[in-house]
Amino acid sequence: MFEIYDVALIPLIIGLVELMKRAGVNKRILPFIALALGIVIGIVYVANFDFKQGILVGTMLGLAANGLYSGTKNTIDKR
Prior knowledge:
This protein is mostly helical. It has one domain (7-77). It has helices at residues 9-22, 30-46, 51-77. Helix 1 runs antiparallel to helix 2 (30-46) and helix 2 packs across helix 3. The radius of gyration is 13 Å and the shape is globular. The N and C termini lie far apart (40 Å).
């Protein structure tokens, strides 16, 4: 079951994606990596291998991480 403290996983996903970005991964695939990380974390950690719930929660985590990252980036860049 998804608990409120599991929201702390979103910054973790952002941090892992940022590490991949600095390692030279193509920026176009980073949102897909965040989504994949969210789904894996959702299945393994949050839903304890309940695939339906894990995919649902993981998708939410990955998309939230993408939105938080791009929203912060767009606010800071102001282009």
